[in-house]
Design brief:
- By secondary structure, the chain is an alpha/beta fold.
- It folds into 2 domains: 17-28 and 39-208 and 300-321, P-loop containing nucleotide triphosphate hydrolases (Rossmann fold, 3-Layer(aba) Sandwich); 213-295.
- It is 34% helix and 21% strand.
- The chain has 11 helices and 13 strands.
- The protein has helices at residues 14-18, 20-35, 59-72, 101-104, 106-112, 123-132, 179-185, 230-238, 257-270, 278-282, 304-321, and strands at 46-50, 77-81, 92-93, 117-119, 137-141, 153-159, 188-192, 205-211, 219-225, 242-249, 273-277, 293-295, 297-301.
- The chain is globular, with a radius of gyration of 20 Å.
- It starts with 13 loop residues before the first helix and ends with a helix.
């Protein structure tokens, strides 16, 4: 989404209740449309990583951590990205040295640094291209609500800080579908964070974010264009940063030169560093990248053996059925 999540998505107020009939219609149409699509089975296993909320819940770092796990299992994983927010119309392999976020999307660029990544709206075509280029297993990023591919394993990612907001479906709330329906699709739920699980999630394995680089805690002016930007603000504070000012932008926001110049003026006037996320850093005009710090994090599973065993068991079952 290219807008800031409205505050009422976190509240069960009059506006959210007024929008509830529209939300019922949205969910009905989504369900009707998904039932009309027959998932296509492909020649290699497909692991789907998805969530229930509009905007990010930690899918990208989960996919990156999953790639590392699959490589240790001697697989050759390829990633499918929708290229959300990009101009791409066909399925192409992402080249971080050649493509920009406007062409393939910021998430696809991040993912392509870790494993071969295919961006495009047609997930089936992307999967077939990946197989033709050596993929032994497919990771489908943000695919829980996409029925085009048969999924052998579905992982539901839940950020415990963000939760499910007011628990209502779009536009009355931040949910793409009801938690009950989403949980039924999932083979396993991965809860990112220390907070209690949202209502409707019966059980989950935990994960947490950890800084990749050495942390130099200091006063900063932070900005981020995420589905739930406050999560970045809280993360910086958890690592000891003194966030003097936090400036949220819409999810996947394409930063303009005037916007960055205004941010730099604030930074220079107060003599405080500018800091943003790795995903936002990709969307900065090139000449500003030397003036902004990127805070890079990775995801760590707290029970990696649980996920490892689940994947191994599922892949073994697939092999024995062939």
């Amino acid at each position: 989404m290219f807008f800031l999540a409205p505050k009422f998505w976190q509240q069960n107020n009059m506006l959210s209740r007024a929008l509830q009939p529209v939300a019922w219609m949205y969910e009905y149409i989504s369900l009707w449309y998904s039932k009309r699509i027959k998932p296509q089975k492909i020649a290699v296993p497909v692991i789907c990583v998805g969530n229930l909320v509009m905007g990010g819940a930690g899918k990208t770092p989960t996919v990156l951590a999953l790639v590392d796990m699959l490589k240790k299992m001697k697989h050759s994983p390829h990633i499918l990205s929708s290229g959300y927010g990009a101009v791409i119309k066909d399925s192409i392999q992402v080249n971080p040295k050649k493509h920009t976020y406007l062409q393939v999307g910021d998430e696809a660029l991040l993912l392509a640094e870790k494993a071969p990544t295919w961006a495009g709206p047609d997930r089936v075509l992307s999967a077939k291209l990946a197989i033709s280029h050596g993929a032994s297993i497919i990771i489908m990023d943000d695919g829980l609500q996409n029925n085009s591919l048969h999924k052998d394993l579905s992982l539901l990612v839940v950020d415990t800080l963000q939760g499910f907001g007011n628990g209502r479906v779009f536009p009355a709330g931040p949910l793409r579908e009801s938690p009950q329906r989403g949980v039924r699709k999932a083979s396993l739920t991965i809860a990112i964070g220390k907070e209690p699980l949202p209502k409707g999630i019966p059980q989950a394995t935990r994960a947490h974010m950890t800084a990749i680089d050495e942390v130099n805690s200091r006063p900063v002016i932070a900005f981020a264009g995420l589905g739930y930007p406050e999560k970045f603000n809280r993360t910086l504070q958890d690592y000891g940063f003194d966030v003097k000012r936090f400036i949220p932008f819409p999810d996947h926001h394409p930063y303009t030169i005037p916007e960055l110049e205004r941010l730099l003026k604030i930074s220079e006037r107060r003599k405080i560093d500018l800091i943003t996320t790795a995903k936002d850093f990709l969307r900065l005009p090139e000449r500003f990248k030397k003036k902004v710090f990127s805070f890079n994090v990775s995801l760590e599973f707290e029970e990696p053996e649980k996920l490892y065993e689940l994947i191994s068991s599922k892949l073994q079952n697939i092999s024995s059925s062939i």
